Amino acid sequence: AALALDNGLARTPPMGWLHWERFLCGTDCATDPRRCVSERLFVEMADVMAAEGWRDAGYEFVCIDDCWMAPTRDEHGRLQADPKRFPSGIRKLADYVHSKGLKLGIYSDVGNKTCAGFPGSYNHYDLDAQTFASWGVDLLKFDGCNSDTLELLAEGYRRMSLALNRTGRSIVYSCEWPFYLRPVQQPNYTEIKQYCNHWRNFFDVYDSWSSIKSILDWTALHQDSIVKIAGPGGWNDPDMATLPGIFVFLSQLVIGNFGLSWDQAVTQMAMWAIMAAPLFMSNDLRHISPEAKWLLQNKEVIAINQDPLGKQGYQIIKDKNFELWERPLSGGAYAMAVLNRQEIGGPQNFTFSLTFLGNGLACNPACTVWQVLPASREWGVYSWVSSLNVEVNPTGTVLLKV
């Protein structure tokens, strides 16, 4: 087991773009070709990612989720792309994505069918791993629908991990394993990290503030069990767990869509950085506002998310409507987020002592404080016994680096 995930990948949380939340399972290319899960969609998204700074900001994966497959395997038992929506095949698409300096992710399922009812990988783990490697795939999102028992589920996740390694190709392995276990038993995260590069814990993220709040609540409630296992090579994906049979996909940044206010978008970006979460956008990069683009490409926030120390952040104070989160960073620095959960009225002030940070070590004997979000500015030098007074908009977050 200790050698199971011998791929040396995901030293920092993976970053990229994923089709699911924005484009769902759209398969009617005749009626709506620009919103259809098709070769065209991924080619156009790769073009934009290479041309408009996304790749250079660190977003390297272009990920296909469910609904890419033909309804049946081919005559040799191999998975195949829908021939009408992917006429050139996945190998050609991967070659194109690679030509843009990007990587291709794909989706399959540990059970006999995917969540949307397409062919799953049960009893085909080695064949499917070899197929993905021969196509030049760089990431596999492996879902957990339609597995008959938890024993078969666990066996399938282990077997696919080993099968991917046997291909000799470097393929990031994204699992849904703990999500399916939680309704029945506490996941063994030590074992899961031996097999997976990142894993999902909670319900699908939706384009709504209530969804973001639920993810943050769940993460804070379970931080004692999940924070300690995260680190280089294996990351908590702060998506939410539902019941088996419901669509389940990577936690996605929904910034640039329709459901979040500006302050709520800032909160998602800041908190995903604090939580060392994989940064997978699900939006239409062909049509995105300059403000959303600025936020998603913000180098200071991404640097916190990608910090090489690889420590996940956690909540240290909850006081009425305010929450204070911290994340240890390399070089003895800390990131901290002050979140205002109030949803009425105007900006509110939160005051706290710097002695709370890093068990009293973050600012001892003195430190500089820099605001990263919602705008970048220097706050100055503070002593160990200083207090900070932070003004935060309703549903907003102020992200600081100490």
From TrEMBL:
Main location: other
PANTHER family tied to this protein: ALPHA-GALACTOSIDASE A, ALPHA-GALACTOSIDASE/ALPHA-N-ACETYLGALACTOSAMINIDASE
Described purpose of this protein according to its UniProt entry: Catalyzes the hydrolysis of glycosphingolipids and participates in their degradation in the lysosome.
Swiss-Prot/TrEMBL keywords: Disulfide bond, Glycoprotein, Glycosidase, Hydrolase, Lipid metabolism, Lysosome, Signal
Protein name: Alpha-galactosidase
Catalysed transformations (reactions): a globoside Gb3Cer + H2O = a beta-D-galactosyl-(1->4)-beta-D-glucosyl-(1<->1)-ceramide + D-galactose; a globoside Gb3Cer (d18:1(4E)) + H2O = a beta-D-Gal-(1->4)-beta-D-Glc-(1<->1)-Cer(d18:1(4E)) + D-galactose; Hydrolysis of terminal, non-reducing alpha-D-galactose residues in alpha-D-galactosides, including galactose oligosaccharides, galactomannans and galactolipids
Family: Belongs to the glycosyl hydrolase 27 family.
Subunit structure, interactors included: Homodimer.
Compartment(s) of residence: Lysosome
One of the GO BP terms on file: glycosphingolipid catabolic process
One Gene Ontology cellular component annotation held by this UniProt entry: lysosome
Root EC class: hydrolase
Superkingdom assignment: Eukaryota
Keyword Ribonucleoprotein assigned: no
E.C. designation(s): 3.2.1.-
Organism of derivation: Balaeniceps rex (Shoebill)
GO molecular function: alpha-galactosidase activity
Domain called Alpha galactosidase A C-terminal: residue spans: 310-396
